[in-house]
Design brief:
The protein is mainly alpha-helical. The chain has six helices and no strands.
Length: 132
């Protein structure tokens, strides 16, 4: 089965939805070693993840027109990796966030490298929403 960006974008949106639901329940994330200092921060991150989930799932329905949103999501994934990996290794967030950060980095790279290739668009076109 060939790799399709639409499918990848859709399932990464589903992943975000699962992460959002997971972060709503402090006993669950504490049980796997994730140390968020106050539940309100977990809920705030859950809201952000739920929003990005909706953006990704909806974008996957018409990827050519909505590819810019996914491309910008790759930048958010890089920012998440930049925060999560050091926080997991050197902070008190918990080692569980290191693989999550590495996963964000990998997903961001797939978005950033896969979209231009599959849609025959330049990085510049995707960055500045010139996908028409």
């Amino acid at each position: 089965m060939p790799f399709k960006m639409t499918t990848f974008v859709y399932w990464s949106g589903v992943y975000n939805a699962g992460l959002a639901a997971f972060l709503l329940f402090p006993p669950l994330y504490r049980g796997v070693g994730l140390n968020i200092c106050d539940p309100v921060w977990g809920w705030l991150i859950a809201g952000f993840a739920a929003f990005t989930s909706a953006v990704l799932i909806l974008s996957s329905r018409d990827l050519r027109r909505r590819a810019t949103f996914v491309y910008w999501e790759s930048l958010l994934r890089y920012a998440a990796a930049l925060v999560l990996i050091p926080a997991g290794l050197f902070g008190d967030l918990g080692l569980i966030v290191v693989p999550l950060g590495l996963g964000d980095l990998a997903i961001g790279l797939v978005y950033m490298m896969g979209l231009p290739k599959e849609l025959a668009l330049s990085h510049r076109a995707l960055l500045f929403d010139r996908v028409d």
